[in-house]
Design goal:
single chain; mainly alpha; about 0% strand; about 65% helix
Length: about 130
Amino acid sequence: MGYIEETLGDWATDSVKDEHSHNGWASYETWLFSVHDDGSSFDDYTLESWNDIKNNADDYEDEEAAAKELLHRVSEYAKEMISDQLGIYEEKNLLKKDVLLGFVKSVNWLEIASGYIDAIPTSDHPLWIKE
């Protein structure tokens, strides 16, 4: 069980998995993205976000709120990166653009982000320690 699932429990599981799973992933699109992505483009951003949230722990009500913020940041970053890489916003062919946008919208970015977050060394867990 990863950090996100441990911290957010059913909230993380319910938002990541549904009845349309594919090869253990939330959807075919999520699985396909994970097959072709080596994660290296997200490693620095994930760690940077992790450290920013950890350094500003007082801004969050509790660890669950901080974990949700981290998940949100990383998932939005991943979605924007793939949209840029696919050239969706510059695409002139409307059918191709709609298909690409449909793909991006079908990826479960929370599941993708959770994988990046789980790759953070466990020595950096927990998110913070309040005194």
